[in-house]
Design brief:
With 77 residues, the chain is α+β, with helices and mostly antiparallel strands. The protein is built from 2 helices and 4 strands, in the order αβββαβ. It has helices spanning 6-10, 47-54; strands at residues 14-22, 25-35, 41-44, 68-70. A 4-stranded antiparallel beta sheet has the order 1-2-3-4, covered by helices on one side. The longest helix is centred in the middle third of the chain and has 8 residues, at 47-54. The chain is elongated, with a radius of gyration of 15 Å. The N and C termini lie far apart (52 Å).
């Protein structure tokens, strides 16, 4: 039997924003991924890049094969 808190290490919540896709080429997908509870966004340019981000083993791995980590900064007024 697994400990009750093991799910916290295995589960992540994501917000995926698809900005562009090609109707005839579903692998040509462009967008952003946010990990809920973390600052920053990770950009992806292909379906494979999205898949790598979603399957990364740790939050420190911020880049997929073609991804870019974008730090969000709060503007001061």
């Amino acid at each position: 039997m697994l400990p009750l808190d093991i799910g916290a290490d295995l589960m992540k919540d994501f917000i995926i924003r698809v900005c562009r896709f090609e109707k005839d080429n579903p692998r040509a997908l462009v967008g952003l991924v946010e990990i809920v509870g973390k600052e920053g966004r990770i950009a992806f340019k292909t379906l494979d890049g999205l898949w790598e981000i979603l399957n990364s083993s740790s939050d420190d791995e911020k880049e997929g094969d073609d991804s870019v980590y974008v730090e969000l900064r709060k503007e001061r007024r």
